[in-house]
Design brief:
Helix content is about 75%, strand content about 0%. It has about 280 residues and is mainly alpha-helical. It has one domain.
Length: about 280
Amino acid sequence: MSNQSLGGSHEGDRTPRGDEPGIEPPEPGGVDREVASSRASRLEASREALLLSPMLGLGVALVAALSVWGTLEIVWPVFRLPEHLRELSGNVGEAEQAEFFAALKVTRERNAVFAMVLLAAGLALALSVAELLQRGAGWRIVWGGLLACLVGGVSAVAAGAGAIALHEALDLEGNRLGKTLLVQAGLMGLIGLGVGLALAVPLFRPRLALNCLAGCLIGGLLAGLVFPIAASFCLPDVNTDELVPHPGPGRLLWAGLACGLIGLAATGLGKRKERQHATAA
């Protein structure tokens, strides 16, 4: 009896072996391989697309838009007419009128370019810092964000010059909406290219640079096409003939559409490949 009970005790306590039916032995290092595979897929995806999710990218971009709009509401106008021209009143000579309108044109263009620079630099800084935080880039977050801000701002100067030249070259007096669509699409597309370049430079990823440029260009073009139409329905009092709308809700709509669509397109492009890598892992 004692031997049987002892035998039964040993049999009950016996640890199952991997060669018994219905029991699969644990794969050595399986968890480590899964972690390594996940890291590899994430690394491969990070070479082709931003790690920011589209919703997070949209949120960051809208925060940047609010910041830009608020700053412009406070400091606008940055450039003003010379004091002697501001004091003109009554009947003035043709020379003074010509000087006044020439100075007014230059002042408006400078203020518009300033708004474009602030928009592009602010959006590039926000998206770049958020992306570098996702990648755990350490100190690169600081200099990478500043570099993106600089590249975005310089690109916006070129975009503003191009938009001003296009605005003056187009002669579509009979189709004001068509002219506005072309000018705003060209302006926002160039700003989008600048933001895409600003995002790509601190990351040093050639394939990622193509996705950033393409995504930001698409988002900018969409924003330029949507803004005049949306403003005509939602804010009919807004003058969309101006390169940058006057202070108020029209400028908020302009900045929100530009930042939101550029941020959404930039963070959304290339995510299909990322999902494929994750599934394969």
